[in-house]
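Lab notebook, bench 4. The sequencing result for the construct came back, and we need a structural model before the next group meeting so we can plan mutations. Quick request posted to the team channel:

Model the 3D structure of this chain.
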Amino acid sequence: MIERFPFYYRVGLLVGLMAVVAGVDFWRHGREGSKYREYGFVLMAGMAGALAGFVNDWITSSISPDYFILGKGLEAGDDLRLRAGVFGLKTGLSAGIIGGAVCLFAAARKSGFPPEQARAMLQALWMPVLGAVLLGVTLPVIAGGFDPVGLSARLDAVLKAEQIARFRLVWWIHTGLYAGLAAGLAAMIVRTKGGKNEN
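Done. Here's the predicted structure in token form:
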């Protein structure tokens, strides 16, 4: 079953398939081929997402361990922060790869993925990262007093008031992270499209 297929095996399979397709494309078209640049960009986006996910969950698991125990299904223990970081790494890698692929598709040219566009998109990877950081920090401050999904009522029987407040804080941090990532990707696509239209 796919659920039992280890995450790292799936990543290895994906990278292996990318390498095969990119190798065939390079063999057939030489430097005119674009698959190795396209897949390289997607993998770079994935690595950026993995790093951001690890750091975020490693930090936020110290704010609210309950968020990861009750909300993410991790077991309590002395190594919870490390396991939360690895959880975030996996989630961030997947989100980064998907986001990179969406961005690549949205900004694609009929002529492929020329080197100048690859450089422009790599140089713009800071936009979704910055968007995630900014909204991850500011959204809890702006909207932290709201409880749109009723977390307080659902957690009242199992957690103390302070634990619930920390749980909600981390929930808002993660909500801001994903909202900022989406906004940053949109800005990145618009910027890349704008640069393309100038050529």
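DSSP finds eight helices and no strands in the chain.
Will bring this to the meeting.
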